[in-house]
Amino acid sequence: MHRLPAWRDWMVWPVCALSLVLAPLLFPGSFALALLSQMGIAVVACLSFYLLFGQGGMLSFGHAVYVGLGGFVAMHALNTWSTAGAYLPVSLVPLCGGLGGLVFAAVFGYFSTRHAGSSFAMVTLGLGELVYALTTLLPGFFGGEAGISCNRATGPAVWGLRFGPPIALYYLLALYTLVCAGLMYLFTQTPLGRMLCAVRDNPQRVASLGYDPQRVRYLAMVVAGFFAGVSGGMAALHFEVVNAEAVGAARSGAYLVFTVIGGAGSFAGPVLGGILMVVCTVLLSAWTRAWLLYLGLGFVLVVLYAPGGVSGLLAQQLRLARSGRLAALLPWYGALAACTALAFWGLALAVEMLYHRQLDAASGSAFHFMGLALDFATPRSWLTALAFFVAGVLPIAWLYPRCAARHARAHTAAEWNAQAHLQRGQW
User: What is the pLDDT of residues 225-272, one digit of tens each?
Assistant: First the structure.
């Protein structure tokens, strides 16, 4: 019989709720509210992708289809009810998007979940391209190139609440984020959620026990489609417009990349991934036009050296801290982080000069990056970038193997310590 989550696991949710309530007080301003709202939307979308990829091992290249179609359905529902005079409460619009995502997932999942592995990935990629192509063929539903817009302040106030002001919309989206995250976590603890993990690990054994792996995958697809549609409805309310980009391959790739960076092996990973998704697409893209290059480099490094993502790294350090072995590794971590930052700074200087040379050469060879004056026409700037890069890479070549060996020994000792406690019945 499956053990229920410990009380310490449940204490996370009141802390998250309190954080969502206090966040606008800690980060005031309309721009901060917009960022926080977008983070909530991205967290729900990445968690819905986690149900397929992390929990079920189903690599989907078309997950944005359910997010985007949920947004279109939510937009049509709000506009249709407003035109008919029977106003739909704005607070229920994300649920309309969830129902739309559920319906489309039930239809598309019937075909895509018949196979697993690479066949499932290719089918989802084809479905994503098919839906994106339909955005130009069905302008009545997708609105053509301009998309579909709405006004979230329409209709009478419900219980005196209107969601035109950004602060009111933020708390509505924060409530949906918390509730959806809690429901998806509960789903992972249900027999269906546990069976989904079994189908991911060994579908043949699941079939020998009398369960249909295809049916388990299909039900997971429907559940994930519902929450993806809720995320699309939340985005429709926040941006008040939905266009073809919402169902494009780039958006599906973003959900995959940031879920992996956050960590697809734990429930907290997609939460971190959703936050990083907004930070990169909004803040990092405003600082540099080479942000996609940096994102791709970070993704490759995570896949190669931290397969568990950011959440996996944090979980490892927490285990070491509980065993009292983290303090001895902190000097090594600090030295490695400093050298990595130095090497990355040198690489960033070279990349920014290359971008400026290719895209802004007409404005002159001299420019400023992060307060530093650069000139791609002079060897001095290139030698400075090379010096920073070499000064960081050479120590890393010596530090990393030794730091990795010490971390492995500490981690092994911590695991043995935990098993000894379990055998004594103290944990």
Answer: 999 999 999 999 999 999 999 999 999 999 999 999 999 888 999 999
Least confident of 216-225, 294-303, 407-416: 407-416
Beta bridge partners of 148: 242
Global confidence as pTM = 0.91
Collapsed DSSP state (helix, strand, coil) of residue 274: helix
101 with 137, same domain: the answer is yes
DSSP structure string for 313-331: HHHHHHHHHHTT-SGGGHH
Question: Cβ–Cβ contacts within 10 Å for residue 26, how many?
Answer: 9
Do residues 231 and 110 share a domain? yes
The predicted pLDDT at position 410 comes to 81
Do 90 and 18 share a domain, yes or no?
Answer: yes
Concatenated DSSP letters of 181-209: HHHHHHHHHSHHHHHHHHHHH-HHHHHHT
Angle at 58 (CA atoms; ends 52, 64), nearest 5 degrees = 60
Q: Over the stretch 369-398, which tens digit does the pLDDT of each residue have? A: 887 888 888 899 999 999 999 999 999 989
**Within 13 A of 262's CA, how many CA atoms are on the CB side?**
30
**Among candidates 100, 47, 49, which has minimal Cα distance to 71?**
100
Helix (H, G, I), strand (E, B) or coil at 35: helix
User: Which residue in the block uniquely carries the two structure tokens 């649920």?
Assistant: 95
Q: Identify whether the C-beta of residue 311 lies closer than 8 Å to the C-beta of residue 266.
A: yes
Lowest mean pLDDT across 80-84, 171-175, 385-389: 80-84
Furthest C-alpha separation in the chain: 72
The CATH number given to whatever domain includes residue 244 is: 1.10.3470
